[in-house]
Amino acid sequence: MGRASVRRRRRRKKMREEMDYDLLKEVAGWIFEIILVIGIAFVLVYFVGEKTNVIGASMEPTLYNRDEVIINKFIYKLTDPQREDVIVFQPNGNKNTHFTIKRVVGLPGETIQIEDGVLKIDGKVYESKYIKVEIKDAGIASDAVILGEDEYFVIGDNANNSEDSRFANVGNVDKQDIEGKVWFRVSPVKNMGFVK
User: Fold this and answer.
1) pLDDT of residue 48
2) What is the domain count for the chain?
3) Which of 102, 162, 165, 181 is catalytic?
4) CA–CA separation, 73 and 90 (whole Å)
5) 35 and 65 within one domain
6) Do 102 and 184 belong together in one domain?
7) Shortest CA distance to 195 belongs to which of 98, 66, 77, 61?
8) CATH number at residue 143
9) Which residue ranges of the chain lie beneath pLDDT 50?
10) Is the dihedral of CA 167, 128, 187, 161 positive or negative?
11) Active site includes 129?
12) Which residue from 65, 70, 64 is spatially nearest to 52, judged by alpha carbons?
């Protein structure tokens, strides 16, 4: 065997070792990224978010009974709830009840009233993209309801099958009783996605 042949073999061996090292580096990089993503997801779900179930039909067709959703518990530490947000709260601050999920329609300082099945905010008809029915039971909103500084008026999208701010056992929702915003539906899988 000549020297040229030995040098070629050594060169090929060195190239294989370099390729193996590059491949090992790339695989290690992918493993690190996967672990990092899983870690971030864990932190988001367990510290920023929380999973809960929808109970009842009051939010249909947006959410259905037994849907599982992730709550963004952090968002309202940075900003206030907005009109049309789907929020999770504990009625009257009662920590011994299950979470309630409804849509915000009235904001602090506004006057809410339901007349002839129509929702009015500060005397003007409010047309919701989500609550599309004539509201049959105005409840306490048959008279004007003036919201306090940190109070919100909520209604279920399925307004005629919803126990919400129109009824005294729920009433106006105080900001401190809001757990967070419904952010993402995780189950059933066929309906998985962001909640609007």
Assistant:
1) 66
2) 2
3) 102
4) 13
5) no
6) yes
7) 61
8) 2.10.109.10
9) none
10) positive
11) no
12) 70
pLDDT of 10: 75
Of 50, 65, 81, the domain-final residue: 50
In 34-99, beta strands by DSSP E: 49-53, 68-72, 86-89
- Tell me which of 13, 51, 58, 162 is the catalytic residue: 58
Do 74 and 116 share a domain, yes or no? yes
Q: Quick one: 89 and 152 in the same domain?
A: yes
Task: Let me know whether 155 and 62 are in one domain.
Answer: yes
Q: How far apart are CA 101 and CA 195, in angstroms?
A: 12
d(CA 77, CA 183): 15
128 counts as catalytic:
no
Query: Tokens 């789907």 appear where?
Result: 86
Q: Which residues contact 185 (CB under 8 A, 6 or more apart)?
A: 63, 67, 68, 69, 70, 191, 192, 193, 194, 195
* CA distance readout (Å), 189 to 1, 68, 185, 192: 65, 10, 8, 5
Q: Locate tokens 């506004």: which residue?
A: 110
pTM of the model: 0.76
- Domain of 162, in residue numbers: 54-194
46 and 61 in a single domain? The answer is no
Residue 141's φ and ψ, nearest 5 degrees, are: -80, 5
